[in-house]
């Protein structure tokens, strides 16, 4: 199986390289794998995720995602790469002035799909995340768990090659968290999507085989 | 209500700038006409010993455009009332020749003095009266009004620009989150800022229409009834069709610059 993510001697830093967060990390993630990245607060989990979707340029080493070298990639290529990713955030990052349905189809809208395709896909996805009755509501009318389900539906809307999730259940109760983990397991199993989740704690109910990396003292290590 | 307020907060300062531009255009046209009338209404008096042709005067100074001979008989008839026919004839023979000399443009008093010197350099010319003081006061008043209005227009435009920038800041915060989310999901610049452009262009069109409507009303309804001479005389200059094109182009330019400033200051993904 080919690598979806490949990091070699990767160093991530802020302040023009002065403040190193991750140093000399080496890891590969293959297509269809489910990966957890854990570590203490402030260890650099979210920084690594930012680098994976091109928000932070590596200061040293190489980072290849979906075949694109993120060190040398131009802005246009980065934008194109992001259209093949599904990204889930702890704070949901939904557009509050848009309906649930419009939020879900944002990746399709960006890709230029017709309104008809967008509507059909919105209905299918909202049914999948059990939010069909809320499609015309606005995000702030929903609970936290429901908003995160909208976020998951949005991440899945374009059948992405890679899903990146930053503490997706960090703000949710146990019930809502289990629903989110279920949805992500399904995406990995049924669509063969690579899922990379940054979290402080691996869920106990998780049933899929997964790989686990831990970030500690600026290094990224695999836990066997 | 919030929607209308948001639009008005952008349309009103934009209208203030457009009003300034339109005032400037109208003023330029009106002052050109006024300058023309000042030029046409002005003439200097030349007194010569011998008859002078306009060509001879033009050789002395190229600003001379035309000359009109003042009938000496008229002058004599005024000054020689009750004087005998033979004496009147003697006065007529003793009188020099008088000319009203018109110039090619509206000139500064210092240039008038140069013309006076050039003409008086000719031995046949006895005297040149340029009526400098009345000419100078008209010219100065005219220049002062022109300068004051331009200053006012610039001041209004600067204040309005600040208001537009303030409104842009509000737009920036209102749209920042949406644009950042769209950028994270790979939306190109035009798609991210599409809504802003649409709103701004609509506002620009409305502002141009409102300003044009104000001036069309002034031109066709208010000016004629106002009883103000300057308005009535310059009614034609108050609004022309090309003004609408200029206003729309200016409004679009302002909103495009404003929207781009919001879009680029809302970048959240590249670090």
- Give the CA-based shape of chain B: elongated
Across the major sheet of chain A, the strand order is 6-7-8-3-9-10
Instruction: Provide the structure class of chain A.
Output: alpha/beta
| Assembly state | heterodimer
Question: What fraction of residues of chain B sit in β-strands?
Answer: 5-15%
Number of structural units classed as domains of chain B: 2
Main sheet properties of chain B: 4 strands, antiparallel
**Global structural class of chain B:** alpha+beta
Write down the overall mean pLDDT of chain B: 83
CATH class of the largest domain in chain A: Alpha Beta
Shape descriptor of chain A: globular
Helix percent of chain A reads 25-40%
- How far is the first residue's CA from the last residue's CA of chain B? 37 Å
- The termini of chain A sit apart by 20 Å
Mean pLDDT of chain A: 91
In the predicted model, the low-confidence regions of chain A spanning at least 5 consecutive residues are none
**Number of helical elements of chain A:** 7
What features would you describe in this structure?
- The complex is a heterodimer of chains A (224) and B (271).
- Chain A is α/β, with parallel strands linked by helices.
- Chain A has two domains: 1-84 and 163-224, Rossmann fold (3-Layer(aba) Sandwich); 96-159, no CATH class.
- Chain A contains seven helices and ten strands.
- In chain A, helix 5 packs across helix 6 (144-156) and helix 6 (144-156) packs parallel to helix 7.
- The longest helix of chain A has 18 residues, at 174-191.
- The mean pLDDT of chain A is 91.
- By secondary structure, chain B is of the alpha+beta class.
- In chain B, 73% of the residues lie in helices and 9% in strands.
- Chain B is built from ten helices and four strands.
- Chain B has a four-stranded antiparallel sheet with strand order 2-3-1-4.
- Chain A binds chain B through residues 14, 50, 53-57, 75-76, 78-83, 85, 87, 93-98, 106-107, 109-110, and chain B through 177-178, 180-182, 184-188, 191, 269-271.
């Amino acid at each position: 199986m080919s690598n979806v993510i490949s990091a070699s001697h990767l160093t991530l830093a802020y302040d023009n390289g002065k403040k190193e967060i991750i140093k000399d990390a080496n890891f590969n993630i293959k297509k269809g794998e489910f990966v957890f990245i854990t570590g203490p607060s402030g260890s650099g989990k979210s920084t690594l995720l930012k680098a994976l979707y091109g928000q932070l340029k590596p200061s040293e080493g190489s980072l290849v995602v979906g075949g694109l070298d993120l060190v040398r990639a131009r802005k246009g290529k980065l934008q194109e790469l992001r259209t093949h990713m599904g990204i889930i955030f702890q704070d949901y990052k939904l557009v509050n002035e848009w309906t649930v349905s419009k939020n879900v189809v944002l990746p399709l809208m960006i890709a230029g799909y017709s309104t008809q395709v967008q509507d059909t896909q919105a209905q299918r996805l909202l049914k999948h995340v059990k939010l069909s009755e809320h499609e015309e509501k606005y995000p702030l009318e929903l609970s936290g768990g429901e908003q995160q389900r909208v976020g998951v539906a949005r991440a899945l809307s374009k059948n992405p090659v890679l899903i990146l999730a930053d503490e997706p259940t960090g703000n949710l109760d146990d019930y809502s968290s289990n629903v989110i983990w279920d949805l992500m397991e399904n995406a990995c199993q049924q669509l063969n999507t690579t899922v990379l989740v940054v979290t402080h704690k691996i869920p106990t109910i998780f049933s899929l085989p997964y790989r686990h990396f831990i970030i500690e003292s600026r290094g990224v290590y695999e836990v066997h | 209500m919030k929607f209308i307020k948001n639009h008005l907060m952008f349309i009103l300062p934009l209208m203030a700038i457009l009003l300034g531009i339109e005032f400037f255009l109208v003023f330029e046209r009106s002052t050109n006409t006024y300058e023309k009338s000042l030029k046409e209404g002005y003439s200097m008096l030349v007194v010569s010993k011998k008859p002078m042709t306009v060509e001879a005067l033009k050789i002395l100074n190229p600003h001379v455009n035309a000359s009109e001979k003042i009938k000496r008989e008229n002058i004599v008839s005024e000054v020689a009332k009750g004087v005998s026919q033979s004496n009147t004839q003697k006065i007529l023979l003793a009188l020099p020749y008088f000319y009203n000399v018109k110039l090619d443009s509206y000139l500064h008093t210092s240039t008038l003095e140069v013309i006076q010197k050039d003409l008086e350099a000719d031995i046949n010319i006895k005297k040149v009266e340029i009526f400098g003081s009345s000419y100078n006061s008209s010219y100065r008043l005219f220049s002062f009004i022109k300068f004051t209005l331009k200053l006012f227009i610039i001041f209004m435009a600067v204040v309005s620009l600040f208001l537009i920038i303030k409104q842009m800041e509000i737009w920036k915060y209102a749209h920042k989150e949406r644009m950042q989310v769209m950028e994270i999901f790979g939306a190109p610049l035009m798609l991210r800022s599409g809504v802003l452009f649409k709103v701004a262009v609509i506002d620009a069109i409305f502002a141009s229409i409102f300003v044009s409507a104000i001036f069309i009303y002034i031109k066709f309804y208010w000016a004629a009834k106002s009883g103000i001479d300057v308005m009535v005389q310059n009614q034609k200059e108050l609004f022309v069709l090309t003004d609408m094109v200029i206003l729309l182009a200016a409004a679009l330019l302002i909103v495009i610059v404003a929207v781009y400033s919001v879009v680029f200051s809302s970048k959240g993904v590249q670090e």
